[in-house]
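Q: Here's a chain of 168 amino acids. Please give me its 3D structure as tokens.
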Amino acid sequence: MNALKHSFATLHNFLNHIVLNNCVEYFHSQEANPGDRTRRDEHRHLFNAVVALDSVVDHLYFAKSRTETFQVFFDQVATEAPVILKVRELANALKHCVTRDRPNKPKPNAADLAELKLHVKVDFSGEVPSVTSVDVSAEFLLDAPKTVEEAWNYWIQYAHKLDVEGPS
């Protein structure tokens, strides 16, 4: 019975107690703290959600005995759901300061995922220019929020399927 097992014991529990909850916390963080222009809290929740989403395939692979290698299995899942590849690339970029680039296929690094912008308005109408406003904002790059949402949709449907079919 899954209810009596810890959060990491089964794929069902991992999806429902770890992965999907991390995603919900990330979605809530997008609306929380509107005054935090750096979005650091949102970045933390994004990291947790992406890393959790990325690890589902590993849990899925080891949920039952398989004859194919992990890479073959991963490729099969990614063919069915291409967002899996996007999540893997995003997770690797977030987890590693530097990823292994190939000259013909550069990969993003952690520093590439968000951009901090400083907007300064200066009034030049008087004798002495004066700063009228300063605004700092952070923007995600690589469609990170969209990737999390796509992966969430894929895995929530999978979790519902597990709920209906029961553990295998």
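Q: Can you summarize the key feature?
A: DSSP finds five helices and two strands in the chain.
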